[in-house]
Amino acid sequence: PTGKISMLPNTELQLNRNKLRHKVAALGYQEVVSFSFTPDQWEADFAGQSDPIKLLNPIASQLSVMRSTLIGSHISILKHNLNHRVDRLRVFEVARTFQKDDQTPDSAYTVKGFKQTWKPSGLAYGLVNQLQWSSQNNRLIDFFDLKGDVEALLGQRTLRFVPCAHPALHPGRSAEVFDDDLSLGFLGELHPQWVQKYELPAAPLVFELL
């Protein structure tokens, strides 16, 4: 038996997960891998989630819920590095997140009532440039540096950045990312409340895309 197949179109606006990983790494970020299970406090703090997906039999008492955001994992990695005297960090992860969704059916790849979504997310902390002998002034990374990274990552799209309210982010230093009317995610500086609670010397910047 024979059959004819044709190549599916793949435009510059379409990024598979491997291409996405390469593009983020090219911006100076290091890839990390973290557990899909998180403390329920992370879901409350960074996602405003009061009713997370709870595990019936968690592998550890502190890993009792399924994550809906990757921000908590990034903050944990930042804390670990700060404890080891790493004061400049760029990390990213492309991983699954989990949400309750009554529209999701039971199938070979899905569980009824629960939706799995792949999300690219990253964190930037510390100086814009690595320490060097140059006499140029160095400074801490800010919102506009991260905005530039997100614009470079999303390539040919025409993006709009709209001020937003997000439970994890500083209300005056955060934005939702739009392509026309389609929301692509958010970026911004971590909320001062969480900077203080998690005992961070300075506020990191994070992004999370859909």
Rg, rounded, reads 19 Å
Number of helical elements: 5
Largest sheet: 7 strands, mixed
Low-confidence stretches: none
Strand content: 25-35%
Order of SSEs: HEEHEEHEEHEEEHE
Shape: globular
Counting helices, strands and paired strands, the structural category is: alpha+beta
| Strands ordered across the widest β-sheet | 1-5-6-10-9-8-7
Helix content: 10-25%
| Amino- and carboxy-terminal Cα gap | 41 Å
Mean pLDDT score: 91
Number of strands: 10
What report would you give on this structure?
The chain is of the alpha+beta class. The protein has helices at residues 17-26, 40-47, 71-83, 143-153, 192-197, and strands at residues 30-31, 37-38, 53-54, 65-66, 89-100, 114-125, 159-163, 169-179, 182-190, 205-209. The strands form 2 sheets. The chain has a 7-stranded mixed beta sheet with strand order 1-5-6-10-9-8-7, sandwiched between helices. A 3-stranded antiparallel beta sheet has the order 2-4-3. Helix content is 23%, strand content 30%. It is globular.
